[in-house]
Amino acid sequence: MQIWVDADACPKVIKEILYRAAERVQVKTTLVANSRLSIPRSRYLDFVQVEAGFDVADKEIARLMQVNDLVITADIPLAAEVIEKGGFALNPRGEFYSESNVQAALSMRNFMDELRGAGAVTGGPSVFSQSDRTAFANQLDRFLTQHLKGRES
Questions:
Q1: What is d(CA 32, CA 48) in angstroms, rounded to the nearest whole number?
Q2: In degrees rounded to 5, what are phi and psi of residue 5?
Q3: Total Cβ atoms within 10 A of residue 29
């Protein structure tokens, strides 16, 4: 199991949680972005820089991820592809996408895009809060505890 991070839009505080978790549980964590990132030196952390462009990082993550990998992303189409490929998708606000909720989230995203395209002012996401940070950290910890059990063989 590996963690992939859609890093261009991932909040810095979430990246920091991921850096600490990678060290603590010794799991390979790769950040993918189209702009250069500075990450701590660690044998568990890696960075892949992709060309600039729409969804280039998303496509690279989808290409590289394997069954049972965890992808950190707020991008719903990427989350849908991850789930379809047998992976897990967690957004930076601590919500897991699943087969049962990703299609509804994708439909809502597409509907909002249509509204914006028609000139409706729909606003953006709410401000990233301390409760979002806590929810993410808790979900990540639960996931890692559950999915890394028995690895110490």
A1: 5
A2: -120, 120
A3: 23
- Whether the pLDDT of residue 58 is over 70: the answer is yes
Report d(CA 138, CA 153) in Å as an integer. 25
Type of residue at 145: T
HSE-CB of 38 using CA atoms within 13 angstroms: 0
Query: How many Cα atoms occupy the beta-carbon half-sphere of 15 within 13 Å?
Result: 19
pLDDT tens for each residue of 77-128: 899 999 999 999 999 999 999 887 766 666 665 555 665 666 666 665 667 7
Rounded CA Rg of the chain:
16
Tell how strand 96-97 and strand 88-90 pair up.
Answer: antiparallel
Q: Both tokens of residue 10?
A: 């991932």
- How far apart, in whole angstroms, are the C-alpha atoms of residue 144 and residue 147? 5
Full-model pTM: 0.84
